[in-house]
Amino acid sequence: MDNNTNNWKEFTLGNPQEEQPRRVAKRSKRKPLLALLIVAVLAIGAVTAAVLLDRSGFDGLRRSIIYAKAVKDENGCAQLYRYSSDQSGRFASLEGSLVSVSMHQIAVLDEKNRAVYDEAVKFQTPALQAQGGRAVAYDVGGTAVYVLSDKGVVYTLDCAGEVLSASLNQKGWLTVVSSESGYKATVRVYDADGQAVFAYRSADRFVMTAALSADSRTLAAVTMGQENGVFASYVVFYHVNSDKEAGKCTLRGSMVYDLTAAGSGFCAVTEEQLCFIGTDGVMTAAYDYGGDYLRRVSVSEDGYAAVLLGRYRTGTQHRVVTVGDDGRELASLELDAEVSSLSAAGRYVAVLTGEELYIYDRQLALCAQLEEVSQAREVLMRSDGSAVLAGSTAASLYLP
Fold first, then answer.
1. Cα–Cα dist 97/22, whole Å
2. Is the C or the N end of the chain the one with fewer CB within 10 Å?
3. Rounded-to-integer distance, Cα 334 and Cα 337, Å
4. For the chain, which residues make up each domain, given as ranges?
5. Residue 297 · residue 307 · CB < 8 Å
6. Residue 28 DSSP SS3
């Protein structure tokens, strides 16, 4: 008889001389218990991953875990940050910390309202931009640049010329546009450690702004000029490992207000449309405002843009639109209110009016609404569905 068959029979039926019922019973109990334990562990792991990685609809549970110790009022707001600021104040939210920049001070406050960094400055036009878990603070026309994290200052730069703009990409690499002697403008790229890795010098055209791609390989810079007597903006592209121009996109008759990385390419914000441009300089898509007036734009790291458009030059008749990086409109919402701030993060869009805060998803379905926010000047949306409401002297965290 086959040995494998004998072994199988012996395992399942046991040996009558060795107390078969007891041995079989023990093994039959262990297997279901072990299987249940494995299933339970896998289920807990799946739920934990979904909550912490924000890959499903468990944002509310995720917030309740992360902010379990936050003391909230009846509206769901936790008073977290107090600071000294003025009307020039700019704010950014970093991993639970708040960055505050004004004409007189740069501060990083943790969730216990402790100042992990505090620097007195003399800025005329303070500016602040955040991306990739970091923020860059500078004075337009000054020479100092501060790169900050939720722990404080990462590094500072003293530029050779006046800083015109500065921005970070998702990996924390820095791009600085400045004026330098002998050139119309210079664009320098710094890696996450603050080491200069690339420089683009423009001798014949002014550079308005610049941005680095999400993978840190391609620099895009906006210059101005004329083509056949018509004003034009040019977006020129360089690979950071080469000094040869990699491409150029001409936007005739358009003034570029802002340029940012979006998806695998870039989004140029003009007065008439959003232009999505690949790293080779080819425009891949565009979203036209349809005759409406551009009010505000916020580009999420998830690769879509939230746009606030006005029906008229003045007034409260607005339209909120979300646009994918393929140039297609995801959703549109009519809004009759004076909007003071717009912020997109993750899959959420926050709209702050004079009296209320609205939080939508990218399809502009209402997720949460908070009334009586008249003290708030700016909203900072977080990817977990919470939002920071910043006022003149304090900021609170809204937890829907």
1. 61
2. N
3. 10
4. 3-48, 71-83+295-400
5. yes
6. helix
